[in-house]
Amino acid sequence: MATQVRPDVEQAQIDAAFHLETEGNGIIAESKRHGMPKELFFVWFAAVLTYTGVVTGQLFTSLGLNVWESMIVVLLCSFSFAVLGIVCGTGPKAGTVTLTISRAAFGVHGNKVPAFFSWMTAVGWESVTMVLTVWAILSLAQYVGLPSTGVGPTVIALIITLILTYTVPILGHATLVTMQRILAFVLGICAVIVVFAVLPSVHWGFAPSIQNMAAHGPFPTFLLALSIGLASTFYGWVNFAADYSRYLPVQTPTRRIVGATFWGGGVASFVMMGLGVVLGTFVNPNAFSSNPVMAIAKAIPAWAAIPFLLAVVIGDICANYLNAYSSGMSFLSMGIRLKRYWAVTIDGIICTAIGVYALFFSTNFVSFFQNFLDLMITVMGPWAAIYLVHHFLVKGRYDAQALVESGPGSAYWYTGGINWRAMASFVIGVAATFFTANSALWVSPLSTAWFGGADLTAFAAPIVTGIVYFVLAPKSNVGANHQVKAKAS
């Protein structure tokens, strides 16, 4: 399809490594498209090869699963990155970010609801990961004998975290992709060292008793673990997916995008979650609960401790590159007119305030906030289902110009700027996921009475919401007969 671009718009779109990216959530002109699908391998590999995966994997054994049951959960979570790759494939087709493409399904104004929740989720994880990075730096300092307690070292660690976290997202897409490629190699080397250090100590026959399972029996516990795992893999990244593929040429084959995303994110997820599973067989659970980073550092051979601590710090920073960059994109997708780098800066200020509160004034804030963010699957899960169903209904064709128009002239205006069929499906999906949840903050009576204590949110979201939207959605290809046009944000 031809792309019509005003000369001033085309000239204004700059995306070069270590230069300030000028585009926000506008449409990328075809002449400004660049890159190859393989770069997505490094984007997702570096972002997913993080300590969060270790914590999640260790959680599977603490729920009561044995090693092999836990590894099946890990494998299924890794496969979910193939579905994430499909969402990535929407970026080149529409030429803009995920939560702006979402306007095609929800409408110009209706999309502000999922965009707000996406922004809140991204800022939440950005804040939590920032705090975890500070703690990881302090753990590294403690291990090498540097000051690591008190206000002074914490402030220094926070300043280092802020500089390392926000410089890259403020500069923008090309800088982020370049840094992820470099740091992916560093993380990969550290991960290999840690894996070889851990394997001799693994208790492969580890199997908690059925009485200690978190749900009522092996299968409900398996579903509970899988739901938690999917929340931190597919559902944890789905609202960012197209942000890093939108600069690819329009004709880029989706299968290559899916492949790069699957191998990058899927392999990293399998390694880190799998590492968490095997660590759960011999790391002291009380020490892990108190300080998980130091508990692991002291449980593995001394020669592997420094690579492990470096991997924790670098991995958290790589994950927060994406959190910070995409939180700004969700902010802009709410219809707020602001330069992209100012949106990232504002998010950074908010996250810093949250981080300061968590580090200096709260004793259990991070645990509470992580539990709260786990509940966000009740919102982002139904949104993801509608996004994907709509994508397949319109056969991946979008009116790019209409995605960035905010008036009644947009092809995605629907009724008063809202696609009420999508909104109705969304509300039904949120209700379905809410009443099938079993989390630290909310346990649905249906979960205990009907599902044996299993958390079915990861499954209720696509099944219930997807079916409802498929039935209600118009079957015409909205946007299919329009030319793709580029427009700056």
Could you characterize the architecture of this molecule?
Strands 1-2 form a two-stranded parallel sheet. It has one domain (35-377): Orthogonal Bundle (Hydantoin permease), CATH 1.10.4160. Mean pLDDT is 89; it is low at 1-9 and 479-489. The two termini are 21 Å apart. The protein is mostly helical. Helices cover 66% and strands 1% of the residues. Belongs to the purine-cytosine permease (2.A.39) family.
- CATH homologous superfamily designation: Hydantoin permease
Strand content: under 5%
The first-level CATH class is given as Mainly Alpha
Q: What's the CATH architecture name?
A: Orthogonal Bundle
Gap between N and C termini: 21 Å
Morphology: globular
Spatial arrangement of strands, main beta sheet: 1-2
Q: Helix and strand succession?
A: EHHHHHHHHHHHHHHHHHHHHHHHE
At the fold tier of CATH, the topology name is Hydantoin permease
In this structure, how is the largest beta sheet organized?
2 strands, parallel
Number of strands: 2
Helix share bin:
55-70%
The tally of helices reads 23
Unreliable stretches (pLDDT < 50, length at least 5) are 1-9, 479-489
Integer tally of domains = 1
- The whole-angstrom Rg is 22 Å
- What would you call the structural class? mainly alpha
Mean model confidence by pLDDT: 89
Give the gist of this structure.
The chain has helices at 7-12, 38-48, 51-62, 67-88, 90-94, 98-101, 103-106, 112-143, 151-171, 173-198, 218-232, 234-237, 254-279, 285-290, 292-299, 302-333, 340-360, 365-375, 377-393, 400-404, 420-434, 445-450, 457-472; strands at 3-4, 484-485. The protein has 489 residues and is an all-alpha fold.
